[in-house]
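Onboarding guide, step 5: your first structure request.
Type a short instruction followed by the sequence, for example:

Predict the 3D structure of this protein.
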Amino acid sequence: MSDTASGPETAPDPARWRVLWVLLAAIFMSLVGVSIVNVALPTIESGLGADESDVQWVLSGYALTFGVFLVAAGRAGDIMGRGGFFILGVVIFTASSVAAGFAPDAASLNGSRFIQGVGSGLISPQGVGMIQQYFRGRERGRAFGYFGSAVGVAVGIGPVLGGFLIRIGGTDWGWRLTFLVNLPIGVICVVLALLWFPRPLFSRIRDPRTGTPVGLRETLRRLDPVGAVLLGVAVLAILLPFVESGAHPVIWASLPLGAGLVYLWVLWERRYRRTGGSPMVDLGIFRTRSFTNGTIIVGLYFLGMTSVWVLVALYLQDGAGHSALAAGSVGIPSAVMASLASTWAGRRVSDYGRKVVIGGLVCGLFGLLTSIGVVVLHESGHASEWWLVLTLAFVGTAQGSVISPNQTLTLAEVPLEYAGSSGAVMQTGQRIGTSVGIAVITAIVFGLLGVTSWGVAIPIGFAAIAAVLALALLVAVKDQRDRTRSGPEIMVA
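The system replies with structure tokens like these:
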């Protein structure tokens, strides 16, 4: 099987499991690169003499370019070969990590982070598209289960690894090591990908009637550059006020501008298809119930749950006075449970379908509500804050039971030729949900801290997250009922 999405499905490629391990290693690297930086921000500020705005852009710059490039990169991989774009993304991410590690000043560091986001934006949609491409049936569920395990471990281990590297490297070199640690992983991934990925890594676009390669002009037409620019600028306009929420209030004017650009993008994509073009996203996929409902579920999930660890870090460090390493260690049992739950769910999603996701959301709600109880009891002197280790393990279980199974179900009926761009649409929703959720929920907590205590602000923050998660649960339950009424559910293509 070549590394293109076109053509009829054939027998499973014998290299598929080796391909998966390379994908997971690179995705693990990119996700650790996100979570590890969170604990490094104070030492970056002191080590480079950076101000608060510089430090904020260490996070914001990466988030913006990552979100902007996702869908366009997914579509490019769909039509020109996912393997080649995946390797390109790993090279860009690794090289920019090295540049960040040796950055002489804040401006250089933030420039490297922008480029790092581009690399990650290339890696993620190719990873999802290649799992769709090389795996089918129950194996696809298992592959996405392993994908979820890598996500869970990366998110959990990142803060711990960051705290450890900062401790051994000190103020001057500790934060630099959090970037340089990507170098050996990236090099290994590129070498193994070149050895193991099926050929060709890149494929020339061919005329469907004659089978001959098309020229540069037709290639660009297939890539839909106008649609790519419209959607990229729209995502940038939507994300900007949330990642730069402390800036001048006029920045919020970009939000309606982003909404208007999304509308123009939809009109363009419809016109492009009517005139015989190949749009970057097949809008017909939104008529597929499993895709639309799954995208809403995961968008709501990320809108809420990604703020949990921000609040936990704030509470344990600023509220309870613990170190960054101790605060990061609280997430280890959660990461273990996320990994175990994701592996189990990947093997069972073909049997139970959306019920796995529903169970995970219920588990997440239980973890949030019991975490509220721990904080309230601790602030009143009746319990240790370390009980959060147990309650947050339920949050980790939810992560493993929701993200990967939902991805499997959501993409099950998506045409293979749009696997990368469709997966990128989901991930773009996740990025927007993450940025909006963190901005809104942390604003609620900080606003409350101005007039009340940690014992009130953090429980209300957790309650806001639980409310969003409850909405996701309602969508999942409705989806399950609709599927039951309409007959047997299509699990995995």
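Each response can be followed by summary notes, for example: Residues 1-9 have pLDDT under 50 and may be disordered.
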